[in-house]
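Write out the bound-state structure for 809.
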Amino acid sequence: AFMLSRYESEFLELECIGVGEFGAVYKCVKRLDGCLYAIKRSRRPLAGSTNEQLALKEVYAHAVLGHHPHVVRYYSAWAEEDCMIIQNEYCNGGSLSDAIVSKEEQGELFTEDELKDLLVQVSMGLKYIHSSGLVHLDIKPSNIFICQRPSTSASGEGESEEEDYQNASAGVVYKIGDLGHVNSTNSPHVEEGDSRFLASEVLQEDYSQLPKADIFALGLTILLAAGAPPLPQNGTEWHSLRNGELPKLPKELCAPFRGLLQLLLDPDLTKRPSARELCKHPVLREGRTG
Ligand SMILES: Cn1cc(CCO)c2c3c(c(-c4ccccc4Cl)cc21)C(=O)NC3=O
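---
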């Protein structure tokens, strides 16, 4: 088109880092500030369509959520000729799904301490989302992104407390991304996320405690990081997972941690801990006793 698009004039596209039915995500440098961003370009949904509603929900959620160390940061969104564009923080360590795949390829497993670190960090992000009156509704490994601390050994002085935090936790920071399914906690219009991670009460359209559906999906996410086989999308296995029958893990977890995972996946949503309770759960405390 004769008009240089804002995307082309403001950004240098480095590489495509993801493609889906939603569109494509690119790793870009903003010419003005020289910083890296992840930019999703999707076909502009038909005005008034449900897809438009979803696209707007994503932007509204980011606008409401502001900044949190465990939620992918939003910078801008705009529409061009026939596509919607959202510019987010670029997380340089891939997704948790990529990390799980590469662990398997190397015949490695996340240690129990790494699993606890992952659970605490994502719980902090969820606590923030839930305290803002929102629910994510699509928590899963491919929607959790990783920021690897740059491998500079210098611990540098006067770093921000977040950077200190990154140094403290051996440099891996997990961030909740893809707010495309975010809803207000008590909203009746739920656009279900990935069925593999869907809590059974949501399938039965019980939206009384949607935050607990995020907790359930988080439980399955940790299970996958612990080496569980790929999750069923439906059928008897799908139901047994939701009747408290957990799959065998390549390396059994210590009883307290396994018990906590069992709680996250409890069929009775009132038994599942809230994100707030998870953040200060004794099993997950520093020093990893228990
Ligand atoms: C496929 N893919 C790979 C990455 C990089 C991981 O190292 C990625 C990112 C995002 C997103 C994303 C998800 C949903 C909506 C918008 C965006 Cl930009 C997708 C991403 C995002 O918001 N930030 C990312 O780093």
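---
The longest strand covers residues 11-20.
The beta strands are 11-20, 23-30, 36-43, 74-80, 83-89, 134-135, 144-148, 172-176, 183-184.
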